[in-house]
Amino acid sequence: xxxxxxxxxxxxxxxxxxxxxxxxxxxxxxxxxxxxxxxxxxxxxxxxxxxxxxxxxxxxxxxxxxxxxxxxxxxxxxxxxxxxxxxxxxxxxxxxxxxxxxxxxxxxxxxxxxxxxxxxxxxxxxxxxxxxxxxxxxxxxxxxxxxxxxxxxxxxxxxxxxxxxxxxxxxxxxxxxxxxxxxxxxxxxxxxxxxxxxxxxxxxxxxxxxxxxxxxxxxxxxxxxxxxxxxxxxxxxxxxxxxxxxxxxxxxxxxxxxxxxxxxxxxxxxxxxxxxxxxx
Amino acid sequence: xxxxxxxxxxxxxxxxxxxxxxxxxxxxxxxxxxxxxxxxxxxxxxxxxxxxxxxxxxxxxxxxxxxxxxxxxxxxxxxxxxxxxxxxxxxxxxxxxxxxxxxxxxxxxxxxxxxxxxxxxxxxxxxxxxxxxxxxxxxxxxxxxxxxxxxxxxxxxxxxxxxxxxxxxxxxxxxxxxxxxxxxxxxxxxxxxxxxxxxxxxxxxxxxxxxxxxxxxxxxxxxxxxxxxxxxxxxxxxxxxxxxxxxxxxxxxxxxxxxxxxxxxxxxxxxxxxxxxxxxxxxxxxxxxxxxxxxxxxxxxxxxxxxxxxxxxxxxxxxxxxxxxxx
Lengths: 280, 327
Known about the structure:
Chain A has 280 residues and is mainly α. Chain A contains 11 helices and 2 strands. Chain A is globular and about 60 Å long. The model of chain B has no long low-confidence stretch (mean pLDDT 89).
């Protein structure tokens, strides 16, 4: 007769969590590396959006004597090249993924395991990011060679940027995960997701640097989570934010992570009771 | 007497299913007022399972088997009733409970699709927080038992259905679960593979003293593994007892086989002749008539041999499933 595993000594909680994150990230990297060509095509597709913005704004800037609202062509180039990294870093498991996960029966398998689903999602996509960053580097070099960005960050800005892109990843994970919970109530959660994405597009600095937006939009953006997932991480590296603004930005991210986490937990505890798992 | 490993009392699951008539008018009407119907997937079922038992959970499609298993595994939240497994309430999904049980769904892949199963096993080690030595010992034991040493290094997507099922089972048992919920683990597999998995479940049960609740549409699985069966139909339990007693309860007939001194005699007067080959005849007779018909055959013919057999378990189950839902 075997020993009951639940009574076997476990590693410490934090050590186990660290081990779990590391192993899940390794698994994600291994899975991602299976598709080298697909990865590159994905990355090429991903840069199409910022390159369009970049070409448009660079053209406008040149027409207006080299700058739009004080942003030079080199600063536009820096903004949108850093944008490509930030965009890849803040791709998360959103509502469409939750729909797939439920429909394909993957959630049932995940729920059988003694893990908090959010940890798994965060760890898995964090691993995926490492592959993306490696693939991003040559693309960033190529874009730099063509568009000549103006970029001279201080060591503090680099440190804040590194924290901010992970902060953005967490903010987005919490909010998109919460929207994903709608799939437990409706099979058309994507409609709300689309509304979220459209709002984010305008108020995050994804479509246009926020400083080109009207004053009231900039003020509104300060009080919503979107800016802290795009505009702030980019500005922390390419902008001229003061030390105070940099640290306040990180605090704002921490606040939104906290709010998002509470929302996710509330939604999850209610959603899981509605899970029907029919046919899976 | 120790507490049962699985305790189920009046467990019920009701799904709310939206429904409407076909057509544009009904679609427009549904926009303002949704109509739903309650589907009672599992209705007030009760049973206990003791430690180390292997119990077959039988029923036709839609009977409520998988719903019950999912409630016991903590996947579904019961509408009402009480379920306890290893002293835990499954719907609470406590970490300690999830570490002590597993559920294998024959039609579902729980391993990472693109990478070798060994990598998924490693991930399970981290998820279940297994000590490395325990993990390696168990992994190697399972790999040897299922003879999958050469499969676990291939990406899961490159494995055949049967191969994948075997590595799925390894992945699901690495944490040495005390309770196994097996939902059609042999579905779609060839006879050899079915037998292999059957043997494995038997060995695992004996070696680790695990409690097993198994659903399967293959009676060979049930006959090989389960002394006890629970039959569920329309969400209600129709039978809970020894497999051998199932035929007594539900079989409407028995089969009398006779070997006659002189073949070719018509025996239709005794019952339904289902097989007649020379001097060997099989006659299906109502269960209550068996003794009387056997006695008549012995008295009226030169009988060299006579056997009385229960109908095949498939036929018994079929007759159980043919019962209408209780109103």
